[in-house]
Specification:
This protein is of the alpha+beta class and 599 residues long. The protein is built from twelve helices and 37 strands. GO terms for molecular function: 2 iron, 2 sulfur cluster binding; metal ion binding; oxidoreductase activity, acting on NAD(P)H. Keywords: 2Fe-2S, FAD, Flavoprotein, Iron, Iron-sulfur, Metal-binding, Oxidoreductase.
């Protein structure tokens, strides 16, 4: 494990045994219902939680020289509801004051390293300003996604009106930790054709499902299978950082998975599921029985018709190898992007400083019009045009011509020819559920798996999550929706895991996604499908704005550029169950949404 719960191994074993032995205790519980083996009282009386800062508990492994202690401010320097990033000499920490109590924890979001001091503090947690992940200020535990890791926490005491923090040096450097996890108690032969939990897909839904099961004390076998040849990796980065390797994008290593008894079967394609015998059949003939099944196969590219489908320089961006090939073939050459999806546009942006020319062929005249509205779409389109990207409409295309296994050019109806040394298809996706058609698991007319609020399908013991599902969305009166966000897939995985263990819960999160182009990031929170108006504050031309999407008289979602942390603050408001009225954002005064709680 990383962060506070790190090797040496004897420490890890002690944590796991403590979790299993103390499951039913009520004192010192962490938010996941487990007794913290490190629960204690701070000198000022505030309850603390699991951290490797307790040198009295682990005297063999933690010595005074492993710690740093520093006076960081006067007790009156922070008001209630304020945060400050403080320097301890060996690293920095986030100091928080809420309800008269001081707490301290890691200052960077473990997801992408965002400075949490610029985030939103509310009701016992801090929400990341970049992508909306939430961390409990008393425990450091991650409470909402994206991301897999939690934050280390540090001891705080007050002496003579000075606030003093004592922190483990290693935790200050790592700025993250994994929650303690149980191990598989059974002796399992890896060739055994049975798994108590079988997970199809190694994306965020599948990975979070497996880790949540272990965090919650599940001690039976977990097998996760994937068509990928790599351990789980950060797929959203593929289109933003085309030259990154699978190693650089890795979310969890094989060692991590093995240490926590999460078996990963790579390059395994499921071709059928037999729900009567509770078994999964793989393309290579392997059959594996299960007790609980979680389907998180994600999406696959929408098929497109063009001549010469076996051409080597046309890509659907799916893997690190695809991304690397695109970057290599585009170097000083001509790139054509078909489709104005977020992935397609991110690839176009990433290629502008590599390729000789970049042409984008879209279905709509304005990119992102359906998701972000015409005004925002046009403003972003201008940014692309300023970076020499040319736009064309798909209905202008006459044919795509290839020779000798290579796409060579795209011919427009006007007679204009676009040279195409590399082509990326980014025209949307469909659910990867073809193997379920004869299974008895219910699919809707578009191929999505329908699930209930606990992520269970119509078949007992079979769950699904991520891009492949239609699930009840509480803010829309439990209308079943598909929200293919990286963040939402994490939530589905956790809900499914808890449901498998008989701890039924439901999706309680605000959808959150982001897109990065030319060093600028679009942040978006809420569910804006069917919006009927857009209220824009700020300056679209300068790309410093916030756009509120409304249905009738209510704000249902928000997007921004260069306006942090307003999207996270809106997510916090919506997540609390409150509504934001259209009239509240029409006035131009949105100061009530701007966080003033950091220093």
């Amino acid at each position: 494990m990383g962060g506070c719960f790190s090797k040496p191994k004897p420490v890890e074993v002690k944590v796991e045994l403590s979790l299993l032995d103390k499951e039913k205790e009520v004192d010192g519980l962490s938010p996941n219902g487990k007794a913290s083996p490190f629960a204690e009282c701070r000198p000022n009386g505030a309850l603390a939680h699991g951290s490797d800062d307790d040198s009295t508990l682990l005297p063999l492994y933690h010595k005074p020289r492993d710690y740093v202690e520093a006076s960081v401010c006067h007790v009156k320097d922070l008001e209630n509801g304020q945060m400050r990033e403080v320097d301890l000499g060996s690293g920095r920490a986030l100091l928080i004051k809420e309800h008269g109590e001081f707490t301290a924890m890691g200052h960077k979001c473990p997801h992408y390293g965002a400075p949490l001091v610029k985030g939103v503090l509310s009701k016992g947690h801090v929400r990341c300003p970049w992508h909306g992940a939430c961390f409990n200020i008393a425990t450091g535990d991650i409470e909402d996604f994206p991301g897999l890791d939690s934050l280390p926490i540090f001891q705080v005491r007050v002496e003579k009106d000075k606030v003093i923090i004592r922190a483990n040096k290693q935790a200050l450097q790592s700025q993250k930790r994994s929650k303690p996890m149980a191990r598989c108690s059974a002796v399992i032969n890896s060739n055994t054709g049975f798994s108590h939990v079988l997970i199809i897909g190694s994306g965020p839904a599948g990975l979070v499902c497996a880790e949540t099961l272990r965090e919650e004390g599940f001690t039976d076998r977990i097998v996760m299978c994937t068509m990928d040849k790599h351990p789980p990796y950060d797929r959203p980065k593929l289109s933003k950082s085309l030259e990154s390797t699978a190693e650089q994008l890795r979310l969890r290593s094989m060692d991590f998975l093995q240490d926590h008894d999460i078996e990963l079967l790579k390059e395994k394609e499921v071709v059928a599921i037999d729900v009567k015998t509770q078994s999964v059949i793989f393309e290579d003939g392997l059959r594996m029985e299960y007790r609980k099944l979680f389907i998180a196969t994600g999406s696959k590219p929408k098929p497109m018709n063009y001549k010469g489908k076996d051409v080597r320089n046309v890509f659907h961006l799916r893997t690190p190898e695809d991304a690397n090939s695109i970057a290599r073939l585009a170097n000083n050459k001509n790139a054509v992007i078909v489709g104005t999806s977020f992935v397609g546009m991110e690839v176009a942006a990433a290629l502008t400083d590599k390729a000789h020319s970049v042409s984008v062929i879209g279905i709509e005249s304005v990119p992102f019009k359906k998701a972000l509205g015409e005004k925002v779409g046009k403003a972003i389109m201008k940014l692309f045009e300023a970076n020499r990207v040319k736009f064309y409409m798909l209905n202008e295309v006459s044919e795509m011509v290839g020779h000798h296994g290579q796409l060579k050019e795209v011919v427009l109806k006007s007679g204009k020819v676009l040279r195409a040394d590399v082509c990326v298809i980014g025209a949307g996706s469909v659910p990867a559920t073809g193997f379920l058609k004869q299974s008895g698991i219910h699919l809707d007319s578009k191929g999505f798996i329908t699930v209930n609020k606990n992520m269970q399908t119509n078949v007992d013991g079979v769950f699904a999550g991520g891009d492949v599902v239609m699930f009840p969305f509480q803010p829309r009166n439990n209308k079943k929706v598909n929200i293919p966000h990286w963040q939402m897939a994490h939530v589905h995985g956790k809900v499914a895991a808890l449901s498998m263990m008989g701890r039924a819960t439901e999706v309680k999160t605000v959808p959150y996604f982001w897109s990065a182009m030319f060093g600028k990031t679009i942040r978006y929170a809420g569910y804006g499908d069917g919006f009927d108006d857009v209220i824009i504050q700020g300056d679209l031309d300068e790309l410093r704005f916030v756009a509120f999407y409304t249905r009738s008289e209510e704000v249902v979602s928000v997007a921004s550029m260069n306006y942090d942390p307003i999207v996270s603050r809106v997510a916090e408001v919506l997540g609390s169950g409150k509504t934001i009225k259209k009239r509240d954002v029409e006035t131009g005064d949105i100061s009530w949404l701007i966080d003033k709680g950091s220093q």
